[in-house]
Structure formats: C-alpha cells, structure tokens
Write a structure and sequence with these properties.
- By secondary structure, this protein is α/β, with parallel strands linked by helices.
Length: about 350
C-alpha cells in the first residue's frame, strides 16, 4: 500500500516543499526562490532569508499538497531539514513541520541537508549507489563524504574557508556580473580563454582532502582592482577581459574539485562518485568530471539539474529513516553548523 510524506526545506534561501510516495515518486515539488531579495547584496542575508521563509512557508506547503492531489490527512509522515543551515531559516521549516506532525498525529523525521543532496543521486539511479564517495558542492558547502549507506556518512574533507558556490558569487560581484554567480560566470566564461590567467589551485597536489577558495577569490580581485599600494594599475575591465577572468577562475575551481573527487575515490577505494549541490549544475564541471571518471573507471552519478539547487524532493531520504523507525521527538532543535560525523 502506498504511503505519502511531506518534505520541507528551508535551510538557506529557498522555501520548498514536496510530496513523495514511499516508492520514491515525487508527486509535487514546489520551490519559492529568494534570488530577487538577495541579488542586490551579492549573497544571502540571513535575517531577510528568515523573514521571507515566514511569508512563504504556508503557501508553499499548500501548493505542494494541492499539486499532489492529496489532503494533509493522507500523509504518513512529515520530514524537515534540521541541519546544517541558517538558524533562523531552519527554525521556520522546523516549526511548520512540528505543527503538522502534532496536529495530524504523524511521525516527524529530521533530515540532514547535505545527506539529502547526495541522496538526490539515488533518486535517479536504477540500483543502490552506496557505498560511494559523495561531494556536496554549493554556496554553503564544499564537502567530501565517505557514504557507506544513505544514512551512514562520515566527513572526509571540507573547505577551510569559502565554499565553491560562495566563491562564484563573490567573484561575480567583483566582475560586475549578476547574482547568483554560478550561472553568470558560466555564461561569461563561454566567450573567454580559461588559460588567460594562471589563478591559484590551492591544495591541488596536497594529500589532504581539503579545499580553499579564498586565495583564488583574492587573486581575481587583485587582477581586477590591483594590489593595495601597487603602482601598476590593472587594465580596464572590458567584456573580453571579464570573459577571460571568468573562464580562468571557473577552470581553477573545476580543476580542484575534479582532482579532489578522484583523490577521495582512490583513498577510500570506492569506484562510485555521487555529486550534489548547486555547483553540480555547472556544465564545465560536469563535463570535466565525467571525462576524468571515464579515464579512471569510476561510475559518476550527478543529481539531476532540478535537484542540484536546494529543493524538498531530495527529502525522499526520509523514507530511509521511516523504514528504520528513526523518528524525531517534537522537542528536536535545529543544528545550524555542519555535523562532523
């Protein structure tokens, strides 16, 4: 007999809800974006994000239920991302989920946001993708995991400063490109030379499974604005120069991400690699990683484009917890920081 759950996502700047059947079929997936709110700041403003979630959470849930053609009374459980994320944003989704669980007398399931990003790969696979190396690469995370099962993950390495997606946003701001930075830099880079500038590739040849994009971002800033106190002023930022800088920056990020993914596979001995998160939508990254995985005989599974950026459909991971009887108490709290397993 089919069962249904409602998944809620509000970890950062997307208010999302989805209705998912226990066979994994997504009956509805609704996402309310906040891009127009944050674009003038070049990044997410936490307080504004939380306020926007308050305005949108109930209409988004209502639309998800309506599109699925069900009523709230048809639900067997409600799931919500409780970590990691912005604390104000997390609490909005968690409060809504607790209220539904209490009033409908159904189980509450806590979801780990990064585990759900990796699970988006399982949703398109014809067989079990675990065990595997998992990479979550987004505006808030650049983390590698040893994924023994969908729910048994341990952190292999992470960025020590900026996440890759955050670097894209900041560099786009430096170049005068639109927010979010990932799509705008990819578009600008199409007309540029990825070898025009030799930007740093931090930790590329380091044994550590770590990332750092702060130095790369600073190198771009110096190329555009010049170094403090230097006599030499950089050339004007023409469209051609913008394209070359965008292409060279993007190539540096891709080189590091690809190298560390392959390195993680070699260190763990896994021949399967799962990729999720907003930066996973970057076409040059997908193409370069596929080429390298083919050479190394590694099976690559990348989340579908519609499930790369934050969404609630990847809350299908909650069925794994439902089947295990892993339910959350109604006094559960949000955990904004990354859980280091």
């Amino acid at each position: 007999m089919s069962q249904l759950l409602l998944a809620i996502e509000s970890t950062c700047d997307e208010t999302a809800a989805a209705v998912i059947r226990n066979d994994g079929e997504v009956l509805s997936s609704v996402v309310a974006s906040q891009i127009e709110i944050h674009e003038r700041f070049g990044g997410v403003v936490p307080e504004l994000a939380a306020r926007a979630h308050l305005d949108r959470i109930l209409p988004v849930i209502d639309e998800a239920v309506r599109e699925a053609g069900i009523s709230l009374q048809d639900l067997s459980a409600v799931a919500v991302a409780t970590s990691p994320g912005l604390v104000g944003s997390l609490l909005v989704g968690l409060t809504a989920a607790k209220t539904l669980a209490l009033t409908l007398d159904i189980p509450l399931i806590a979801i780990d946001h990064v585990a759900a990003h990796i699970y988006a790969c399982q949703m398109i696979a014809s067989s079990d993708v675990f065990p595997a190396v998992g990479l979550v690469v987004s505006g808030g995370h650049t983390n590698l995991y040893d994924c023994r099962t969908a729910l048994d993950l341990s952190l292999l390495g992470a960025t020590i400063d900026d996440a890759a997606g955050e670097a894209f946003d900041k560099v786009a701001q430096i170049l005068g490109l639109s927010y979010p930075g990932g799509p705008s830099i990819q578009k600008a880079a199409e007309q540029g030379d990825p070898k025009a500038f030799s930007f740093p590739r931090t930790f590329l040849n380091d044994d550590r499974l770590a990332f750092s994009f702060s130095g790369l971002k600073t190198a771009v800033r110096y190329e555009v604005e010049g170094q403090p106190g230097a006599r030499r002023q950089p050339p004007p930022l023409t469209p051609e120069r913008t394209a070359d800088i965008a292409a060279s920056f993007q190539a540096a990020v891709v080189d590091v991400l690809v190298a560390k993914c392959i390195q993680a596979c070699k260190q763990t001995g896994y021949d399967r690699l799962c990729i999720g998160g907003g930066v996973a939508a970057n076409r040059p990254f997908r193409e370069a990683l596929q080429q390298k995985c083919d050479q190394q005989k590694i099976q690559l599974v990348i989340a579908p484009m519609e499930y790369c950026t934050d969404n609630a459909a990847m809350g299908a991971i909650a069925w794994e917890k439902f089947q295990a009887g892993d339910f959350a108490a109604l006094d559960i709290d949000a955990t904004p920081g990354l859980v280091r397993r």
